[in-house]
Amino acid sequence: MSTEDIKPRTDLPRFEEAAPLGPQDAEFVQDLIAVLEKHGNADRFGLCLLHGHFPLAADEILVETTDMETRTLRTSVEKASGTRHKKPSQWRFLPGVHHSRRAEFAGDPYEVVLVCDPYSGCPPRS
Question: Is 80 in the same domain as 33?
Answer without folding.
Answer: no
